[in-house]
Design the sequence.
């Protein structure tokens, strides 16, 4: 059973408009969330993250919102640019009870296409 | 510049053959990870290592093994390749002192098992 779900495999938006990518999770122990961006034939690259003690984190055109009660987070890109066209992965992590390094659980990804 | 590299970038092999995928990072990161990416599944963890001589199984470890003899390298071995192991494989590393859990990924290896 997937603990992190991205229910939209693809999303298309016009250049200059807002892109909203959604992610749902089931494990209430997750306490840190990350978004990664992936271009074809490249590895994923870190984009933005948010701790569970916050409900919003902003970095330039990218903002992540976290709704803990709904177990939902979203990534907003404003304004969207053609170079933003990529696959976006949502990931979550939970502190290990042993104190060892934390592992990431990834969603299945959303292909964003920004149309010129 | 420090980086993480994977080789080969593309590999075609036959069922039953042993295959080893290389991962090398120059950040001196303690934590290293191997994932596979399949359509509809995103990235799934195969094996990971917190340091030299340490290895651990991930979500989809059956049929795979890793070894960590130094900080820089975490090779992934498919003991007897199967068609179900056709996938894109990503290696990642993380600084154990980084509180943000950010992992840095290599460019990937596309493996086809015929």
Sequence:
């Amino acid at each position: 059973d997937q603990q992190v779900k991205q229910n939209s495999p693809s999303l298309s938006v016009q250049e200059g408009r807002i892109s909203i990518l959604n992610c749902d999770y089931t494990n209430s122990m997750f306490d840190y969330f990350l978004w990664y961006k992936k271009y074809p034939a490249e590895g994923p690259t870190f984009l933005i993250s948010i701790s569970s003690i916050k409900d919003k984190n902003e970095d330039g055109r990218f903002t992540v919102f976290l709704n803990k009660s709904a177990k939902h987070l979203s990534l907003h890109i404003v304004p969207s640019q053609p170079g933003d066209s990529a696959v976006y992965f949502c990931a979550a992590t939970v502190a290990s009870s042993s104190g060892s390094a934390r592992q990431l659980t990834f969603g299945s990804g959303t292909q964003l296409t920004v149309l010129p | 510049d420090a980086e993480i590299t994977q080789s080969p970038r593309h590999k075609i092999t036959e069922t039953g053959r042993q295959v080893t995928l290389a991962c090398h990072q120059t950040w001196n990161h303690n934590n290293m990870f191997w994932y596979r990416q399949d359509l509809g599944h995103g990235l799934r963890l195969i094996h990971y290592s917190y340091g030299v001589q340490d290895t651990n199984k991930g979500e989809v470890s059956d049929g795979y093994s890793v070894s960590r003899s130094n900080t820089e390298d975490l090779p992934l071995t498919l003991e007897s390749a199967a068609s179900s192991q056709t996938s894109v494989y990503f290696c990642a590393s993380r600084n154990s002192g980084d509180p943000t859990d950010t992992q840095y990924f290599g460019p990937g290896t596309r493996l086809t098992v015929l």
About this structure: The two ends of chain A are 37 Å apart (CA to CA).
